[in-house]
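#structure-requests
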Amino acid sequence: MSKFNLQTLFRPEVLALSAYHVANAQGFIKLDAMENPYTWSDEIKQTWLAELKDCALNRYPDPEARELVATLKMLNQLPDEIDLLLGNGSDEIIQLLLMALPSNSHVLSTTPSFVMYKQISDYLGLNYHGVSLTDNFELDLSAMLAAIEQYNPAIIFLAYPNNPTGNLFNVDSINAIIDAANGLVIIDEAYEPFANNASFMHNIMNNVLVMRTVSKLGLAGLRLGYIAGEHKIIEQLHKIRLPYNINVLTQTTVQFALKHKKIFDEQTTAICNERALMFNALNSLNGITAYESAANFILFKTPENQATQIFEAIKAQGVLIKNVHPQGGLLTDCLRVTVGTPDENQAFLQALKSAF
């Protein structure tokens, strides 16, 4: 007989959770995770490997990744008074922000939005509130302001562009939320490369921080995110950041990649061009409604009560996309597809046409 009881060993918040599920994509055309489908040329790979050769694997990495931080600040044209903190993906940064809060704090975001805001809030035992977007996926400003008044949230997360809807929220509405907030407002710009320069990076002040990642650029395997904010806030997050959280191979590789940013810019342009073609192709299909996107994916609505059936039919043809219908609410009857290469996108469209 076991000497311990899981029900008393772990916190109720943890026991009540379901683990974040990642679908097995082996053998599929993978269009479910908002990844950049393009890789590097053999020439660039050889140059990269030559740089990795000198990595001091026997030593701990720079705990503050100072060289990489300086490069990111330069690329984003950030002034000296703005600091950066790097994380093992944006997820770690979200976790650090929420871990820093007093117990029983309130956290606010939209519904739907990036699921990890709620997931991490829940397992930390915080009070999470999701305010529904309007039917056209815009911020319900009056509802957001009412929630701020009622809950006085310590942190508000706004994904810009939003995931999984892909749209950019109204700037005036975001500014009104910032003005009303007493806590931190985190503008999550994970998909900024595809958003035609829409950004709050140069509006960082007081309680406004901007979070980004290199994952969507084409470096998802490295798991590097960063957040920019005033020194007085970033220094508090450093206190609870685990030492050496960004390994030496990630620091060296991202530093190398950002020296070749032109490659990513070209890939981003190709993805945005394909996004436009896919959007038009989806909307040309009877029964399908695609929603405009400023990200590297497209959310689309299927005929009523057919989303899961269509998802499974597409999967049976070797293409993996994301079924968001089970989340309900505004996502009922919806699927989400990542923009891939031209061949991948055509395979998806053909599979979709055959699915209903």
